[in-house]
Amino acid sequence: MINKLFDFIGGVQIPYYKEMSTQDSIGSVALPSQLILPLSQHIGAAAEPIVTVGQAVLKGEEIAKATGYVSAPLHAPTSGTITDIGDYPLPHPSGMRAPCIILTPDGENQWMPLQPHSHDYQTLDPSTLRNIVRGAGIVGLGGAGFPTFIKHNPGPNGHVETLILNGAECEPYITCDDALMRERPEQILAGLKIIKHALNAKRCIIAIEDNKPKAIECLRSALMIYPIENTEVIAIPTIYPAGSEKQLIYTVTGKQVPKDGLPINIGVVCQNAGTCAAVHLAIEKGQPLVSRVVTVSGDVGKPRNVDVPIGMPIDELIQQCGGITGSLRRLIIGGPMMGFAMHQLEIPIVKTSNCVLVDAGNAEHLKPRDEVMPCIRCGSCAEVCPVSLLPQQLYWYSKDLDLEKAQSHYLFDCIECGCCDYVCPSQIPLVQYYRHAKAEIWKRERETQKSDAARERHEFRLFRIEREKEEKAARHKQKKAALKTNAVAANATDSEPSKKHNDPKQAAILAAMERVKAKKLESQIAPKNTDNLTPAQRKTIEEIDKNRKERNNKDTPET
Amino acid sequence: MISAIIVLGLLAGIFGLILGFAAIQFKVEGDPLVEKIDALLPQTQCGQCGYPGCKPYAKAIANDEADINQCPPGGEVTIIALADLLDREPKPLNPENGTESEVTVVTIDEQICIGCTLCIQACPVDAIVGAAKQMHTVITDECTGCNLCIPPCPVECIDIIPIKTSLATWQWDKPDETRTDDTKTAEPAL
Ligand code: SF4
Ligand code: SF4
Ligand code: SF4
Ligand code: SF4
Ligand code: SF4
After folding, report:
1. Which residues does chain B have within 8 Å of residue A550's beta carbon, measured at their own beta carbons?
2. Residue A199 placed within a domain
3. CA A422, CA A216: separation in Å to the nearest integer?
4. Cα A549-A551-A554 angle, rounded to 5 deg
5. Both A132 and A266 in a single domain?
6. pLDDT tens, B74-115?
7. DSSP codes of every residue in A185-234
8. Closest in B53, B98, B111 to A458, CB measured
9. Residue A89 in contact with residue A66, Cβ under 8 Å?
10. pTM for the complete prediction?
11. Domain finish residue from A487, A504, A522
12. What is the span of the domain harbouring residue A216?
C-alpha cells in the first residue's frame, strides 16, 4: 500500500525544542498530599458527585457520574478519603474556580476489583465496547477533551473508511505522545485494534511527523509483532500545524472535511495516541482513565515526561521535576502556540493537560511579545493560514467589533493555531483579537435570546393584565345587574364591607411594616440593599430613579 | 390500510392548507418597522427612555417622535444598530436618560420580605414569584435588571447584585495594545 501525501496550504516551520524533555524515559511521581478533581474536565455537561465527604474510595472507583449524553464520569486516581467537595481554581485561562472533589491519598494505591476483557473483546459488539469506553471516563487526551465514545459511534449510516492515529504532535515542547509511541507502542496498537474493530474501519493509518524517527521506528517494529490488518505507519512532513485534525486528514487522505462538518462525514475518524492507550487499558485491563502522560518542560530543573495521576497539583508536579529555574514569568498549559497562560500554580492536571510549560525568562524562545506596532499590510499572515482565511481582515473586523463582517469572513473557521500571530512582523496579538471577537458574538447571541424571552414575558404580562381587566369589568357588570334586580337596601350593606375589606389590608401591611421595623431594631438587621452596594451602584440607582421621575413629570403635562 | 393512509394524508394536506390560509388571512398585522426596532431594543422594560416599555419607545422612534439615543441599557451597541436600521447617523447616548452601566439582577432578602406583592405588580416581566403574605423570590434568569421593583418595596429588602460570570459566559479580554494604530476607520483593501 503506497500512500500519496497531500500538502495542506499554509503552516509554518518553527523550532521544536522537543529534545529537552525526551532525554529520560517516562517517569512516575510520588503521590501528592491531595488530588484536586474538577467535575468538568471534558466538553459537555459536568459530572455529578456520587461520593460524600469522609467516604473512603479505592483506586478506579467511580466518584462522579456522567450527566447526559455528552459527558464523562470521573474515577478516583488512587485509594484514599474524600476530604472535600467544593470550588477550587481550574486550569482555565479565566483563573476561575469550579466544583471539584478533593481526594486525600492513603498511600496504599489500592485498585478496586477490575473486570478486564483481555481476550474476548472481539466477541463484544461495538455498542458494548463504546459503553465500556464511556464508563471508563475516556475523553480526547490531545487537548479538546471530547468524550471518546461518541467518536466511536459512526451513527446509523456512518461508514468508516480510514481510522487515523494522530501521532503528529506538532506543537513545540510537547513530547508526551512521542514518549508513549517510543515506550509503549504495544499499548497504542492494542487500543487502535480495538477502536478499528468497534468502528469496523477498513484501514488504519498511523501518521507521525518525520521529526520523530524513533517513534516511527518503534511503531513499525511493534506492528510486526502485533500486526493489525490494513494498517501502516507513515511519516508526514514536519510543519506546524500538521497535527490539527482537518489538516492531518487532508495530508493523509487528500479529502477536505466539509465546513461545519465532522471527519465522520467523509468516513474518517482521528484518534490521539494517548487516547488509544487509554482505550486499551479500559477494555483489556478494565482500568478507567486515572492517569496520563504529561510533558513538563521549559524552565524547570529536569524537563521530562511523567505519568501523572489526574488531579495532581501542578506546583507539586513542577517541584518533582526539579522546580522552577529562576523566577516564574508565565505558566502555560499546552504548547506555546495554542496553550493558555494560567493565573496560578495551585491548579490540577486534568484529563486534557498534555504539557506544563514553565517560562521563567531563561529560554530565549519563550520571549514575551515586543511592542505592538501598526499593521503594515504585508500579507504574511494570509500566506501561513492553514485554513486559507484572511487574518489581516479578520483583525480589522475583530478590532472594530464589526462582528457581522468578521463572521462573513469565516471567523468561526479559525482554529486559533497562531500561525498568523507567529509570523506577524508587527507583533499584533491576532489570535487574542479573534478569541475576543468570537466570545463577543456568543455574548450577543445570549443577550438576544434573553431579550427575546423578556419580550415574550412582558407581552404575556400585558395580555394577562388586559384579560384581568376584562374579567373584572364583566364581573362588575354582572354585579350591577344583580343589584338592580335586588332591593336598594342591599346596596348599603354591599358597599360597606368592601370599604372595610380595604382597610384591614392596609392595616395589615402597616402592622407588618411596624413589626419588621421593630424586629430590625432588635436584631440589628439593617436593610441590606443599601449596604451591599458599591458607591457606583448606589449612584446608578439614584440616577435611574431621578431620571425616571423627571421623565414622567415631563411627559405627563405634555400628553 | 393503504386507503386509510391516503385518506389521512389527504386530510392532513387539506388541514395544512386551511391553517396556512388562516395564518395569512387572519394574521394580526403589527407595524413591521416597529417590530424591527423593537427587536433591537434590550427589552429591559425599565422606562428610562421615557416610555413605559421598549415597544412604546419603538413606536415613538418609528413615528419620529423620539430620537434613537434614549435607551441607556442598550447603550452604544443599540444606538449603532438602530442607526444602521434607520439609515441615520449614530450619536452618543442622551445623558438625560441615564448612563450605560453593567447589567445587574436583583435578589430579595427573604428574612425581611413581608409578602406584600407590591414588587410583583411592578415587575414588567413577571420575574418575581410569591403569593400574598408569603416570602417572594426573584427568578434570576428572567430578571432584566430594570430595578422597577425596588422603589415599591415597603421594607426595602430588594438588593441589586451583579450577574455572576460562569465558565460558560467568561470571555477573553480585548487585547491591550501598548501602541495602537489610528487607521481604524480605513477599510482594508480586498
Ligand atoms: S502579518 Fe501582521 S502586519 Fe502583516 S498583514 Fe498580517 S497583521 Fe498586518
Ligand atoms: S489563528 Fe486562525 S487566522 Fe490565524 S493562521 Fe490560524 S486559522 Fe488562520
Ligand atoms: S430604556 Fe431601553 S430598555 Fe428601558 S424601556 Fe426604554 S427601550 Fe426598553
Ligand atoms: S425582578 Fe425587579 S429588577 Fe428584575 S425584572 Fe422584575 S422588576 Fe426588574
Ligand atoms: S415588595 Fe418587598 S416586601 Fe413586598 S413582596 Fe416584594 S420583596 Fe417582599
Report:
1. 96
2. yes
3. 28
4. 110
5. yes
6. 998 899 999 999 998 888 999 999 888 888 999 999 889 998
7. HHHHHHHHHHHHHHHT-SEEEEEEETT-HHHHHHHHHHHHHS--TTEEEE
8. B53
9. no
10. 0.78
11. A487
12. 19-30+113-320
pLDDT at B182: 29
- The Cα of B160 is separated from the nearest Cα of chain A by a number of Å equal to 7
Contact criterion met (CB below 8 Å) for A283 and A148:
no
SS3 annotation, A148-187: HHHHCCCCCCCCCCEEEEEECCCCCCCCHHHHHHHHCHHH
For B:106-125, CB contacts with A below 8 A are 109, 111-112, 114, 116, 124-125
Determine whether the interchain pair A443/B171 forms a contact, defined as Cβ–Cβ distance below 8 Å. yes
What is the pLDDT at residue A558? 42
Are residues A393 and A297 part of one domain? no
The residue among A90, A464, A528 with the most chain B CBs within 10 A of its CB, best to mutate, is A528
pLDDT tens track for B46-79:
999 999 999 999 999 999 999 999 999 999 889 9
The pairing of beta strand A304-309 with beta strand A162-167: unpaired
Q: Which among A433, A458, A555 has CB closest to B124?
A: A458
Residue B73: inside a domain: yes
Element (H, E) at A419: helix A419-423
Tell me the shortest Cα–Cα distance from A557 to chain B, in angstroms.
13
Whether A158 is in a domain gets the answer yes
**Chain B residue at shortest CA distance from A538:** B160
Interface test with A, best of B35, B79, B172 (most A CBs within 10 A): B172
Q: Which of A487, A509, A525 is the last residue of a domain?
A: A487
Mean pLDDT by 10 residues, chain A (559 residues): 76 88 91 95 91 95 93 95 95 91 94 86 87 94 87 82 93 94 95 92 94 94 92 93 92 89 90 94 94 94 95 95 89 90 92 93 72 91 94 94 91 93 91 93 91 92 91 90 69 48 65 65 46 64 67 49
Question: What residue has cell string 459527558?
Answer: A71
Based on the fold, state whether residues B115 and B76 are members of the same structural domain: no
**Interface ipTM > 0.90:** no
How far does residue A146's CA lie from ligand 2's centre (Å)? 22
Closest residue in chain A to residue B188, using alpha carbons only: A393
B155 lines ligand 5 (CB under 6 A): yes
| CATH number, domain with residue B68 | 1.10.15.40
Which domain CATH number covers A120? Answer: 3.40.50.11540
Residue positions counted in chain A: 559
Name the DSSP letter for residue A62.
Answer: E
Confidence bin at B174 (pLDDT 50/70/90): confident
Ligand 2 lined by A338 (C-beta under 6 Å): no
Domain residues for B65? 32-86
